[in-house]
Amino acid sequence: MRIFIRELMRRPGRFLPVGGALTMLVVLLVVLGGFLDGLELNQTGPYRAHEGRLLVFSQQSDLLIQRSRVDTKQADALAKADGVTKVGALNQIASTAEDPDGRIVDIVLFGYDLATDVLPAPPADGAAVIDSALANRNDVGVGDTLLLGATSEPVKVARIVDDLSQGSPTVWLSSKRWREVVGAANPASLLPAGVNQALVVQPSDAGLDQTRLTKLAAHLGDQEGLDVATPDEVVLALPVVQQQSSTFEGIIGVTFVVTLMVVALFFTLITLERVGLYAVLKALGARTRDLLAGISLQAVCVSVIAVTLGFALSVVFVNLLPATLPVRLVPNRMLQTGVGVLLSALLGSLFTLRRVLRIDPAEAIG
């Protein structure tokens, strides 16, 4: 085993080609994952803002808020169910907003009742809560006035929260104010009194983990005509998330296969060059598994260095990208990438097994 470590230390240039290729593949994998996470996070902010709570839709809506209609009777029944402390409305509509400088921006206008860990309680005076995407892009601050919709309904910005984009920046009003704004701009799109697109359920126990939250959702979902889900389930049900995930995960999967093949090809060629050395080692008593373990150790060491350099280059590269590109480096995704590259390198090194097994000390040495 030591001979393989010594070769790695004394002749690092020999492993430079595979190390450089792996580093570039790591950068590619990290950036692809960053695009996937960025696109998903930019589309799902309103749902992620309700983590720790449950979202309720009509049964035929496929967990899509724009297709859902839930009435007051269903909301009252949920509020009386075991494990529930509060139930509030959640409505949305695509709209526009004019900032103080007269610029028009597409927004998604939400009406809500319940505060969350991200969203404050709806402003009682009809003011708005906006996400940081709108604030940063249009230089909007607390106290500024936005003009919403075709009728330019004025609302004052009361607070700015984290980026809760849903493709477009979001503006949050109390349910009452939301109905006023929507009714003034487009009465035909206003929901009937007592009907909401979706409901938010706040559990009695604020510390429910994902498993217990899912069990509560299944219990509440027994009510006829309702579909109760966790925010994570709602996010996964979004068609745009499904399409983006399938596309990017396919590309990422192919990249991992390329990583495996690069390592396999390099170490297979190295093994062909080392036939004489391996024959001598076998003649001295080295077992096939010892040689294979040494090759695998070299592959893992090279991949560890490549992952480290790749992560560093990825961070630099992403920081140089325009802020408008939806790239977000999420620690969990980077950890998965690192582990995936290490496993791919390890599996790739095992492709040398057949060649090592065929080495005959007597024939190789002559």
Q: Secondary structure elements and their pairing?
A:
Blueprint: H1 2-10, H2 16-48, E1 54-58, E2 70-71, H3 72-79, E3 84-98, E4 104-112, E5 128-131, H4 132-138, E6 145-148, E7 153-161, E8 170-174, H5 175-185, E9 195-196, E10 198-203, H6 210-220, E11 226-229, H7 231-237, H8 239-273, H9 275-283, H10 288-320, H11 331-349, H12 353-357, H13 361-365
Parallel strand pairs: 4-8, 5-7
Antiparallel strand pairs: 1-10, 1-11, 2-9, 3-4, 3-6, 3-10, 5-8, 6-7
Helix pairs in contact: 1-10, 2-8, 2-10, 2-11, 8-11, 10-11
The count of β-strands is 11
Low-confidence runs: none
> What value does the Rg take, in angstroms?
28 Å
> How many helices?
13
- Order of H and E elements: HHEEHEEEHEEEHEEHEHHHHHHH
Distance between the termini: 25 Å
Structural class, from helix and strand content?
alpha+beta
Spatial order of the strands forming the largest sheet = 3-4-8-5-7-6
Described by strand count, sense and barrel closure, the largest sheet is: 6 strands, mixed, barrel
Tell me the strand percentage band. 15-25%
Average per-residue pLDDT, rounded, comes to 85
Main location: membrane
Membrane topology: Multi-pass membrane protein
Keywords: Cell membrane, Membrane, Transmembrane, Transmembrane helix, Transport
Transmembrane segments: 15-36, 250-270, 291-321, 333-353
